[in-house]
Specification:
Elements: E1 7-11, H1 16-27, E2 31-36, H2 39-51, E3 55-60, H3 66-80, E4 85-88, H4 105-133, E5 136-143, H5 156-174, E6 179-186, H6 193-201, H7 203-216, H8 225-236, E7 247-250
Parallel strand pairs: 1-2, 1-4, 2-3, 4-5, 5-6, 6-7
Helix pairs in contact: 1-2, 1-8, 3-4, 4-5, 6-7
Length: 266
């Protein structure tokens, strides 16, 4: 129970990955405060956590609204005393599969702006609480395009790079207060809701896409949601007490080499 007596706020907890992280942190002992725009989806996650013996509370919070974010954190501190972990898994719509030379400026800039808006607002709100506590962990999430050039990803790649840069800079400012800031770079989990929906509706298209993505990894398999969730639990714990200001790559090695050129000989 490496997160025993910790309070974790999860933004976008109704999403498949946000929910997976919430469940993993609860299983590790944390009390999780689940937020999202849809009560039904976050309640479903909370119910599953409670049935499993965990502690979870829900709140409808607009993760793009500073007042709503600040008010929710104040409620948590009033009720629970501390905010120990903040994790933002809020997704934004992205126009992709179009060359940059053909994408509109609005479609390119919008995901960058929205991604940074919610990441900044939730991280800074948590930072203000944690600075008073002199402790805390702020986690964020990006994907493979944050580490390498990735064609036809529109504004998603620059958005990932912006989050990773912001995470490093925030860590450099908050370290003196005992606060750690770490980003997780995911390779895309085939068991996540967005992938499963695509696989179910477009199996002929998704099969070669997934095989190509697997070939791009060193391990020849994509990270599952549990891999990301377990990494988040470790980074939020005291076991990672000297890890801050970095992006932890959980892409199976995709961002480190041209792995599609290598295959097993047997």
């Amino acid at each position: 129970m490496i997160l025993q007596n910790k309070n974790a706020v999860i933004y976008g907890a109704g999403g498949s990955l946000g929910g997976a992280v919430a469940k993993a942190m609860s299983a590790a002992g944390a009390t999780v405060f689940l937020t999202g725009p849809n009560q039904e989806t976050i309640k479903k996650v909370a119910d599953e956590i409670i049935v499993a013996g965990g502690r979870a509370e829900i709140a409808i919070v607009d993760a793009f609204n500073e007042t709503a974010i600040d008010g929710h954190l104040q409620q948590i501190t009033d009720h629970a005393g501390t905010v120990d972990i903040s994790f933002n898994a809020v997704g934004v719509d992205v126009v992709q599969n179009i060359p940059l030379a053909e994408i509109s400026a609005e479609d390119f800039v919008k995901p960058i702006t929205l991604t940074m808006q919610t990441r900044f607002m939730t991280a800074i709100a948590a930072a203000r609480v944690m600075m008073k506590q002199k402790s805390g962990v702020i986690l964020s999430l990006t994907a493979t395009p944050g580490g390498i050039g990735y064609p036809h990803t529109g504004g998603f790649g620059p958005a990932c790079s912006a989050v990773e840069s912001f995470s490093r800079t925030l860590a450099s400012e908050l370290g003196a207060y005992g606060i750690r800031v770490v980003n997780i770079r995911s390779g895309g989990s085939p068991d996540s809701r967005i992938f499963k929906n695509a696989i179910d509706t477009m199996p002929d298209i998704m099969d070669p896409i997934l095989k190509k993505m697997e070939a791009d990894t060193m391990l020849k398999k994509l990270p599952l949601m549990a891999d990301i969730a377990n990494t988040a639990v470790f980074l939020a714990s005291d076991l990672a007490g000297q890890i801050t200001g970095v992006t932890i790559d959980v892409t199976g090695g995709t961002t480190a080499a041209l792995n599609y050129r290598v295959s097993r000989l047997d």
